[in-house]
Every structure is written in structure tokens, then in C-alpha cells.
Amino acid sequence: MGDARQRLLAGAIEYVAENGVNNLTLRRLAAELGTSHRMLLYHFGSKEGLLVEVVREVERRQRQALAELERELDANVDGVAAAAELTRRFWARLADPAMARYERLFFELYGHALQRDPGAAPLLDGVVESWLAPLTELVRTLGVPAESAPARARLGLAVVRGLLLDLLATGDRAGVDAALEEFIAGFTHHDAAQSGDGAAGRPSGPVSADSASS
């Protein structure tokens, strides 16, 4: 049964990516997926429940991609430079126009969830926490002290989500990219000052795939 649910979810993700969510109905989606709307209701409860799971799965894939990008970094690059490079690479992935539909869906459902819409409210479960553990581990791997790593992880998540919302609202890629560079400059300057010599050593041990998808 789990495999059937995953196949339906994967198909729904592709459908949403191709067609968006305007005028989406379970009957139309079921026809495209070669199933019945009753099966979609059985697995996901409602259209909103299905869309929440679409968002969660896309977010899980993004965490996995972040872990993969971290593993690709040059182990000889110091922590400050590695953090800056990883931030730029991950931002390039998130800001890809192909991701915009998923991100609009995320913010749309996030708004409904904050209004306690019963169909969207489950999105709040883990919407921040699911990122904090892998991000905290990541920034520690890149040389951030353990005591400040959780706050740095939360700050990074908030900044990136805020910039994504800005990008979706304004379409000003150059302006948003410039803002990201200011954020990177701020934390690299801080870390260089903390290290005392301009380079925080990068400990060994990349983020595991398990922690990135938790």
C-alpha cells in the first residue's frame, strides 16, 4: 500500500509541476494518474491533504539535494568559503524558475495553515523543525560553534524563505541575489572574525543522507 501511495504522490508532483494547481480537482488528477478519486481520498484524505504531501515531498527532496551539494564541496576549502559556496549553489537551485510553482504552492498552503484551515494545518507540523536538525548539523560541519549552530540554522532558513517570497512577489532576481550576497558577506565576516585568522577550519564528516531527509 505504501508503494501505491508513493507512486500516486510522485505522479501528483509531476502533474502539479506541469499544470499548476489552478482548477485542480481530484477527479481530473485521478484520470491523469490512471486511478480513481476515491483512491486519492483513501491515501490523502482531501485535495488539500494531497497538496500538503506534495509540498512535504518536495521539501524532503530539497533537503536531500542540500546534503548532496555539501558532499560535493572541496574538502580542502575552509569552513567560511565552503559555507558561502554551498549557500550560493543551493540558492541557485531554489531560485530556478522551474521550482516557482512548488514554492508558490508552499506559501499558499502555509498561509492557509496559519489561518488554521483544517485541510492545510498539518503542514505546520515540521515545517520549520524538519529543516533545523539537518541545517544545524550542516553548519556545525562547516565550522560554526555548536552553541550557535541551532540559531544560525534557523536564521538561514528564515532568510532563504524570505528571499524566495520576495522573488515570487517581485520577480527581481538581481535584487534578491544581491540581498543574498549581503547575507553571505555578513556571516562570512562574522565567522572570519570569530576564527581570528579569517578562516574557520572545516571539520571532516559530511551531512548524512539520513539526517538530510529527516
Describe this structure in words.
The protein is an all-alpha fold and 214 residues long. It has 2 domains: 45 residues, Orthogonal Bundle (Arc Repressor Mutant, subunit A); 156 residues. Helices cover 71% and strands 0% of the residues. It contains 10 helices and no strands. Helix 4 packs antiparallel against helix 5, helix 7 crosses helix 8 and helix 8 runs antiparallel to helix 9. It is elongated and about 60 Å long. The two termini are 22 Å apart. The C terminus is likely disordered.
Short description:
With 214 residues, this protein is mostly helical. The chain is built from 10 helices and no strands.
Question: Could you give the count of β-strands?
Answer: 0
Total number of domains? 2
* Structural class determined from secondary elements: mainly alpha
**Major beta-sheet overview:** none
Radius of gyration, whole Å? 19 Å
Helix percentage: over 70%
Termini separation: 22 Å
Number of continuous helical runs: 10
**SSE string, helix = H, strand = E?**
HHHHHHHHHH
The average pLDDT value, as a whole number, equals 85
Basic shape: elongated
Ranges where pLDDT stays below 50 over 5 or more residues in a row are 197-214
Beta-strand content: under 5%
Organism: Thermasporomyces composti
Protein name: TetR family transcriptional regulator
InterPro entries: Homeodomain-like_sf, HTH-type_TetR-like_transc_reg, HTH_TetR, Tet_transcr_reg_TetR-rel_C_sf
Pfam families: TetR_N
Question: What secondary-structure arrangement, pairings included, does this model have?
Answer:
Elements: H1 2-19, H2 26-33, H3 37-44, H4 47-72, H5 79-94, H6 100-114, H7 129-141, H8 149-170, H9 173-195, H10 209-212
Helix pairs in contact: 1-4, 2-3, 3-4, 4-5, 4-6, 5-9, 7-8, 8-9
